[in-house]
Amino acid sequence: MTTALITGATAGIGAAYANRLARDGRDLVLVARDTERLAASAAELTARHGVRVETLTADLATEAGIEAVEQRLRDGDRPVDLLINNAGFGHRGTYLDVPVQDELDMLKVHIEAVLRLTTAAVPGMRERGFGGVVNVASVAAFLPRGTYGATKAWVVNFTLGIARDLAGSGVRLQALCPGFTRTEFHQRAGMGTSSIPGWGWLTADRVVDDSLRDLARNRPLCVPSKRYRAAVTAARLLPPGGLGKISNTAGRDYRKP
């Protein structure tokens, strides 16, 4: 039986990955900051699907948190065959409204943690000739969206680059770029969502299903749904900033949620 490690595993897309992978019979390592919520998620998944679920409390905005997950990924006696780098967050304010430390925390979680955890996991996978890494980015990677969009653009380019470097090794890489998804993301950031049209929303289960389908097909870039694939194509073809204003307005509603 294979094992998947998921960061940001207790809510939203991370929880959807946990449920789907447990249903498929994979053992799990769930990583998040909230110990009680981790325990509740583990108990529910074990009871429902009969898989082994390990929990690891870690804040990936801290050195200690990243090191704890790195250590678990390097444990050759308990190999992880699928890494889902899902942990992340958004800011409600625009540039100069957000404290620099909050921006640095975002860089730590979205970039440094993704780099270090991927680097901790991949050597063992390559040695075994089997494994996968999904780095959760966003369609914001293709639009000017401040630090958030910049970090997600890094995730996409990093993932596509190492996918090419590891071609033929048996290790599959994917940058997942969902659009607006019904999770706790906006609520936690204090963002309203009234400006996002109903047709713009995806479900976390849909995002995960598309991701795992494309990972099985060894597709290194996954943009769930035709409407968001069309948006990404348009963003690549239009002059820089062509869709940025729309994205900023819809994605960061500063009114009280």
Automatic annotation (TrEMBL):
Does the keyword Oxidoreductase belong to this entry?
A: yes
Is Protein transport found in the keyword set?
A: no
A GO CC annotation given for this chain = membrane
Q: Which domain of life is it from?
A: Bacteria
Q: Which GO terms describe its molecular function?
A: oxidoreductase activity
Q: Which InterPro entries match?
A: NAD(P)-bd_dom_sf, SDR_fam
One short Pfam name that applies is: adh_short
Taking the record's annotation, the residue ranges forming a coiled coil are none
Which terms are listed as keywords in the entry?
Oxidoreductase
The family assignment reads: Belongs to the short-chain dehydrogenases/reductases (SDR) family.
Q: What is this protein called?
A: Short-subunit dehydrogenase
- Organism this protein belongs to: Kitasatospora cineracea
